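Problem statement: downstream parser choked on a complex file, so we are re-checking the raw output for the KG4 run. The parser issue turned out to be on our end (a line-ending mismatch), but while we're here, posting the original submission so the record is complete.
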Amino acid sequence: MKILSVESTCDETAVAVTENGRRVLSDQIFSQVNLHALYGGVVPELASRSHVEVISLLAERAVAEAGVRKEELDAVAVSYAPGLIGAVLVGVNFAKSAALALNVPLIPVHHLRGHIAANYLAFPELEPPFLCLVVSGGNTLLADVRDYTDLHVLGATRDDAAGECFDKTARVLGLGYPGGRPVDELSQGGDPTKYRLPVGNVADHPYDMSFSGLKTAVVNLVHTAEQRGEELDKPSLCASFAATVSASLVPRTIRAAKELGYNTVVAAGGVAANSRIRADLTQATKEAGLRLFFPPLHLCGDNAAMIGAQGYYEYLAGRRADSSLNAYARMEL
Ligand code: KG4
């Protein structure tokens, strides 16, 4: 089954063609990073306008790159929540029109389910159940993936997402936007034990997390150093910061997998590209005797192939949308 899939929830416009949820035939992505970098963060209205400009062209290219005729497409899948509402609406509206024009079913896909499904594209042997750590720009959560379309949130951040925290740290250090990668790169030469930063916990909710205290601690540290005219060791601050985020994510992930009796841990989302988190998870799962799957770097960030992968399983589970499908800024997993 060949699915045309659409992603526009934030600052990437993407259209892909995938086969049977496991094979990528084409994956077109247009990143708006240069557009938003000027402002130090995503400007929602500019994001929506940019999606409108490029989405049709990307779809044409995705179909051409896949080497299929339009009549060979069996369904259209779209990321319809959560995200920046104006941005999501562009993809939803485009997908509705495409499904109507092609006379094929329309499948609504939760964006974060898509991030998890990125792993199905990379690892043919991976099947639920497993424990998934989802760490993206706007969301941080631990998901109990019982089956392809039966997912439950065990715990989530109560405030900022880990990705937001990386972006804020980069901003206050003048490293540009989006900040995760530059913070990761700079941290390579640093001492991760040099700065003591707080790990947020939520009383009586062991799987819930908090990153706003960490964010504030980094901002205060930088501002205080500036006021006192002290030189900051930026590589060590980045390394200490990444180690602190990892210390919040990794032990919880291992504990949750053990508690559920799963032998497989999966990571997903843009922050799963982080080298410290990857190294710590690799070591912790090895020590605990768990299998670990990480999406390759090109499938960590937003893309449409992952929406096609999850769309296939949603389709098998009978999920369909009609022409009244709406977009949603928030939605349960
Ligand atoms: O999954 P994603 O593309 O967007 C959402 O669906 O939200 O994730 C984007 C986030 C940004 O916050 C970005 O700074 C972060 O992923 N990121 C990283 C790294 N690469 C991207 N964070 C830490 N280390 C990285 N290497």
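For whoever reads this later: The mean pLDDT is 97.
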